[in-house]
Design a protein that fits this description.
transmembrane helix, mainly alpha, transmembrane, membrane, 39 residues
Length: 39
C-alpha cells in the first residue's frame, strides 16, 4: 500500500493542478476561445 501511496500522490497533485488550470482557462479565456490553442 505504501508503494501505491507514493505513486498516487504525485498523480493526484498533477490531476488537481490540471483541473484547476482547466477551470481557470474556461472561466478566464472562454470568451476569447484560446483554450483550443492550449489543448
Amino acid at each position: 500500500m505504501a508503494i501505491l501511496d507514493i505513486h498516487f500522490w504525485p498523480i493526484a497533485v498533477r490531476l488537481a493542478a490540471l483541473y484547476i488550470f482547466y477551470l481557470s482557462c474556461n472561466l478566464g479565456i472562454s470568451s476569447t476561445r484560446l483554450q483550443g490553442r492550449v489543448l
